[in-house]
Amino acid sequence: MVSQAENAGTVASGDAAGQALAGGGGEPVGTGVGSPEDVALDDLGVAADDAADDEEDEAGGEDSGPAGADEAPAEVDLADLEQESEIAADYVEGLLDVADLDGDIDMDVEGDRALVSVVGATLQELIGPHGEVLEALQELTRLAVHRQTGARTRIMLDVGGYRARRRVELTELGQDAADEVKSSGVPRRLDAMTPFERKVVHDAIAAAGLRSESEGEEPNRRVVVFPVG
Q1: Residue range(s) of every CATH 3.30.300.20 domain in the chain
Q2: CATH superfamily, with its number, for domain 165-226
Q3: Is the peptide bond before 187 cis (omega within 30 degrees of 0)?
Q4: Whether the Cβ atoms of residue 60 and residue 72 lie closer than 8 Å to each other
Q5: Within 13 Å, how many C-alpha atoms sit on residue 172's CB side?
Q6: pTM of the predicted structure, to 2 decimals
Q7: What is the pLDDT along the chain (229 residues), one digit of tens a residue?
Q8: Domain 4-161 is of which CATH architecture?
Q9: Which part of the chain is CATH 3.30.1370.50?
C-alpha cells in the first residue's frame, strides 16, 4: 500500500519536472506519462516502491552493515535491462526535444540495473537544487518504462555526470561520519538525503565496518551511523 504522502511526492515530481523543462517560465512541458493527476495509482505505487529499492536493494536494506556484504544479488536478464534503456532513452530524448534542450543520450548497464545518461552543455536545469529535478525526471522515466513493459524497473537516470560527482562527495561524507563515530562512540544523524544518496552513504559506512540505518519519512529521511557494539 502506498501512502498519500508517497503519492503526493510522485505527483510533485511531475510538477517539478514539468516546470524545469519549461525553463522556469510559461506553461510546464508535458512529461509524456499524462498529467500528474492522470497518473494511475498503480504507477504511483511502482514509483514509490522503486525509490525505496534504490536504498534497500543496494545498501542491504534499512539496516546496512558488514553482515549483509556477502548476500548474492538477484539474477537480472541483460536483454531486459537493454530494453529498459532503449525505452527510457526514447522517453528522455522526447522530453529534451519538446523542451528544446540540447543533450545526447548514452545507454549502459551498470551492475544489475540499466543506466541512461544525458550529456551536453546546457543541463543544469535538468538537475535542479540538490538534484531534485533529476530525481523527479528519474521517477517519471521509470513510469514510462513500466507502462511499456508492465514490470518494475530500477533504471538510473543521470545528467551531466551529476550522480558520479555526487557519489564521490557522499562516499567521503560517509567515511568522515564513520571515522567520527568510531572516535566518539556516539551515533551520528546525517542530513536528509534522497534514496540514491542514502544508498551511497550506507555503502561507505559498511565498508568502514560500521552499521547504519535510515530513519524518518520522505523527504526528510536520513542516515544514522552507529558505533560498533
Answers
A1: 4-161
A2: R3H-like domain (3.30.1370.50)
A3: no
A4: no
A5: 5
A6: 0.71
A7: 434 444 444 444 555 565 556 554 444 455 555 433 333 334 445 455 555 555 554 444 444 554 333 344 456 789 999 999 999 999 999 999 998 888 899 999 988 899 999 998 668 888 998 888 999 999 999 999 999 999 999 999 999 999 999 999 999 999 999 999 999 999 999 999 999 999 999 999 999 999 999 999 998 999 999 999 7
A8: 2-Layer Sandwich (3.30)
A9: 165-226
